[in-house]
Amino acid sequence: KKEPKQTHVSASIARQNDLGSSLLELLYPALHIDTELAICNICTHKLSHADVCEGWSAGDAHDYCITCKYCKGKGVARFAVSTEKEGFQDSGMDGEHKGKLYCEFLSPWVLRKEVMSILNDDEGVSALLDPDFPSLSKEKATIFWNLIVSLKREELPTAFLFQGSFGNSLITPTPDSLDENDANYGL
C-alpha cells in the first residue's frame, strides 16, 4: 500500500484552507462529499478515491473515464454531494439517493480543460465566481464540485471560489500580511 504523500502547508495557506472550509459550511450547511462510493461498472469492485486517481489517463484532457485497477476495464467514476442548503439541485433520484448530487470524477487534465473553457467564455472568471454557478446546470455543478474535491485533496485554498457570494474581499492574505515562513515558499 502506498504511503500518503507528505505535504507542507504554510501558515497562511492553512488559514486560507480553514477559511474555505468555514465558508463552504456556511454556504452549504451539513455538507457531505462522499468520494469513496465509486464502483467499477465491469467487475463491481468498490474503488477508493485513491483508486480513482490512479485510474486516470495521465495528461489526457479528453478521457472522462478511469481504468479499474482490478479488472482493467474502463468506466466513469462518480462521487456524491449532499447538503441541507435550500434549493440545492440534486440528481432528482428517489430512495437512498434522494437529496444527493452525483458528479463524475474529473481528472486534473479534464478539469483544467473545462475550467479554461469557462474562463475563455464571454463572462470569464466572473462566471466561475457567480454564486449560482453550481446550480446552473449538471455540467457546471460537476465542474464546481470537482474543483472543491481537487483543491481539498491537494490542500489548496478554496475560498476564492466563494468570492461572488460575499460583498467583501475573500482573497487574502494580502502580500503585506504574509509571515516570514511564507516567504520561503514563494507565497
Measured as a percent range, the helix fraction is 25-40%
Rounded to the nearest angstrom, the radius of gyration is 18 Å
**Overall form:** globular
Low-confidence stretches: 173-178, 182-187
Strand content: 5-15%
Question: Alpha-carbon distance between the termini?
Answer: 33 Å
Structural class: alpha+beta
SS field, number of helical segments? 7
Order of helices and strands: HEEEHEEEEHHHHH
Query: Largest sheet, if any?
Result: 3 strands, antiparallel
The total strand number stands at: 7
Mean pLDDT: 86
Q: How would you write the strand order of the largest sheet? A: 1-6-7
Task: Write up what this structure looks like.
The protein is α+β, with helices and mostly antiparallel strands. The chain is built from 7 helices and 7 strands, in the order αβββαββββααααα. A 3-stranded antiparallel sheet has the order 1-6-7, covered by helices on one side. A two-stranded antiparallel ribbon has the order 2-3. A hairpin with a 6-residue loop joins β4 and β5 (74-75). The longest helix has 17 residues, at 11-27. It is globular, with a radius of gyration of 18 Å. Residues 173-178 and 182-187 have low confidence and may be disordered.
